[in-house]
């Protein structure tokens, strides 16, 4: 498929004064994208442009695709093709017998090295583990994925190669000329995977060319820096912040105030997911003496000291101390180190820093995309989440399923409070959210019987351990297990991690029986997600039982589960 893809160009009609918000190389980082759009104050009047590579190298590729499909249905959103996106489409559409081993090997390799991939997420949603895949059954599983996820695959496959808006041109890798008539219909692959594009002799006059693909840090020889790179002489803007590729990477967002704006008028921000801290001491800059990059990363480990190790860069012979977790052994047996340097950042008292790594006497930190060490004292920035009454005004970046929850609650005259937050992937993050809600926090489990003919949503206290035998005999259903995500999405319109009683509003055929452990009814309020785990809401149990459940035609079945001894 790769060699047959031809260059297509989509021209975006933009009104004078309309903002363009530009992102690239999301690589499966759904939460990064959501939090970045919140930070950009993404609004209905904005045009959102995504410059390719939506999938792989991150934890939620499928969710990123579905989220952007949702936004495209409601807002002016334009997404171009990326080389990784195209490569995955090609691999999935290949049906030759010899390609089966390659497909199975890739899925299992990506699980080991990335933790997830688009294919793995698709397979797991249908109840298939990567370990079940082999060269013999790969063709059948690929056929199932093409059938089950045809909408998502059609969306990815229909992306244009190049987007233009006023004086700006967006392409994932790079182009050799701004003569668009000469490019249209030619092989698209060289424009999607155009390595080190900024180092080539290309320069532009008519357009400012905005690219992703090649992390901006790879162009910088003197320091570690993942901020966007603005080259005003060549009229090229490289915005890939190394999200999913670099351990200190981030998702960059560019703000173009008007499609006629000059490059000097542009602004940018980013999101990286690292904890924040406030510097309590100033520090002078010390330039890097050792800079380890992707292309010069072979090292020798000289000595270990706890979690740190002194290494020697083979190319320069210079030494530096790095966390041992940054060292990896290649298949060739050579030891390599993640991108890093021994630079000390210039830091002023009161500046906020992203904390990448905490060592005993110093910290590896990031400030506005620039990365280095800081030896001063710091104070962690505490998340302060505030409950807000009623539905949000900033609706643009939210998924339709979340907005539908707010709209239904308001129609039913159910009062509620809500809080927006990052995905709660740690116990500490969960505690912060729980503290803001000040309500009974329920554990929500999506279950089914062995035949997958009966499905259950169980609400139980967060602190209790779930044992199938304690529940099965109360509902006369033997051998309960956790239901696959495909049923969760089909019946409740909910993704894993967002399971909530609010999803019953989408179960119009009553395929899911609600089970409630009586113990959770001891409080006045309870908290849950509004079908999205980047927000939480608080409402009264009485409103759930007397208003919400009757309105969605679900009657709860009460159970009593034993407390842990």
Please tell me about this protein's structure.
The protein is of the alpha+beta class. It folds into 3 domains: 2-83 and 157-271, Metallo-dependent phosphatases (Purple Acid Phosphatase, chain A, domain 2, 4-Layer Sandwich), CATH 3.60.21; 276-380, no CATH class; 388-559, YbaK protein. Helices cover 24% and strands 25% of the residues. The strands form 7 sheets. Strands 25, 26, 27, 28, 29, 30, 31, 32 and 33 form a 9-stranded mixed β-sheet that branches. Strand 3, helix 2 and strand 4 form a beta-alpha-beta unit. It is globular and about 70 Å long.
- Which strand-content bin applies to the residues? 25-35%
* Broad structural category: alpha+beta
Rounded mean pLDDT score: 93
The number of distinct helices, counting runs of at least 4 residues, comes to 14
Q: Could you tell me the number of beta strands?
A: 33
Q: What is the subunit arrangement here?
A: single chain
Question: What is the general shape?
Answer: globular
Q: What would you give as the CATH superfamily of the largest domain?
A: Metallo-dependent phosphatases
Distance between the termini: 59 Å
Q: How would you sum up the major sheet?
A: 9 strands, mixed
Looking at the structure, the CATH topology of the largest domain is Purple Acid Phosphatase, chain A, domain 2
CATH class of the largest domain: Alpha Beta
Radius of gyration: 25 Å
Instruction: Supply the number of structural domains.
Output: 3
CATH structural architecture of the largest domain: 4-Layer Sandwich
- Helix content percent band: 10-25%
Poorly predicted residue ranges: none
